[in-house]
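Anyone have C-alpha cells for Peptidoglycan DD-metalloendopeptidase family protein? Sequence:
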Amino acid sequence: MKKLGLILLSAILLLGMVLPVMADDDEDVYYLTMCSGSDLSEEQKNECRDYASRRNSELTKQLSDIKAKRKEIESNLEKIGKEIQGYDAQIATLTTQINELTAQIEEKEALIAQLEMQIEQKEAEIAALREKVEQRLVRSQQTLHTNQFLDFLMGAEDFTSLLRRIQGVNDIMNYDKKSLEELKRLMDELEADKAQMAEEKAALEISKTDLEAKKNEVTELRVVAQLAQVAYEQQAADLEAQGNQITENLGAFKNILSSIDFGSIGSSTGFTKPNGGYLNNGTWYYRSGGVHLGMDIMAGIGTSIAAAGNGVILNSADGCANNGSIGNTCGGSGGSRGGGNQVYLLTNIDGVTYAIKYLHMSPGTPVATGTVVSAGDRIGAVGQSGNASAPHTHIEVFKLGTMSIESYANSWNGDLAFGAGWGSGALSNTCDKKGAPCRVKPETAFGY
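Reply: yep, here.
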C-alpha cells in the first residue's frame, strides 16, 4: 500500500500538485513533508519534481518486479499442480490394479483351499478303496486258485446250478475290475488336482510379488507427491499476496450503499458455523510449513454455507467453474486470485465488527454484493473453484474494531485483506500481536 501511495503521490507531484502522505523512510519523510507544504520556492518545486520523477521510476521498477515474481509463482504453481495431478492419476491407476490383484489373490487362495480339501477327500477315498481291493486280492489268492475255480464250477449238480456259479464268478471279477478302474480314476483326478494346485500356487506367488511392487511404487509416488504438495503450499500464500488485492467491485458497492438499511442490522451473539463439515487444514501454517491464513472446512459440493452473523455482503465474486486444482488462479470477477467464487461478509458479533472471507464456492451460489443477511442465512454453497484440490470452504476472519458496520462500509477502500496484510507478511498482523485491523484465528472464533 505504501508503494502504491508513493506512486500516486509521484504522479501528482509530476503534475505540479502536492498531497500529504506518511512514509517510513527518512528520505521519503523529508521530501514528502517539504513537498506537501504550500508556498514552495521555485528551487524547492524543482527539487520535488526531481524526487517524484526518481521515486516514480524506482517504484515502477519495483511493481514490474512484483508482477514478474507473480508470473513466476503462477508458472511454478501451475507446473507443480500438473505434477501432483499426474502423481494422483498414477496412484489412482496403481490403486485400482492393487485392488484387482488383491481380489485375484483372494480368489486363488480360496481355490487353493478348495483344491486342498478335494485332494484330502480323494486321498481318503483312494486309501479306503485301495484297502478294499487289496483285501479282495488277498482273499482271491488264498481261495480262488485255478484248480479251485474248476472244482467250484464242476461241483455243480446240474446245468442251471453251473450257470449260476459261472455268473457268480463273473460278478466277482467284474467287481474287482470296477474297483480297480475307480481307483485309477480317483488317482488320476488326485494328480490333476495336485498339478492345478501347484500352478495356482505359482501364479499366486507371482501375483503377490507384483502386488508388493505396485504397493512400493505407490509409496514412492506418494512421497514425491507430498514433496510437490509442500512446494505448492509454501508458494500458495505468496501467490494470493501477489494477486488481486483490491476488489474490482468497490464502485458497484459504493453505488448501492445508499440503498442499504444499516439500521436493520443488529449485533449477533457468537459466530455461526458455516455448516456441519469438518476442519481439515488449520490456520497460519500448513502441516508442511507453508503459510495458510485461514481454516479449511471440508464438505460435499453443494452444501450450504451459513453467514457467521448479521451483516452485509461487501464483495461477491463469481464465474469460476467447479474444476479447481492446485495452481488454478481463478478469482471470479473482483475476487482475490486463486480464491475461486467468493464472498466477503461485514458483520457485527458481540459488539465487534468483523469481515469474514469465504472462498472456493460453487458457481452461481455466492449471494450478491450489498445483500443484507442474518446469522445462519445461506450465502453460498461449497464448491471446488479456484486454487482448490478438493471441495471445501476456506475461511478467514478479520477483526476491524468497534466502529459500526455502516461506518466501516462507507470508509472501506476495497482492500480484500482489510488492512491486515497478505502472504507471509500477514503473520505479523494477527490479533495476538496487534490491535485492529488484525487477523483472528477462525478456529478460535467458530469453536473448532
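Residues 42-143 form the longest helix (102 residues).
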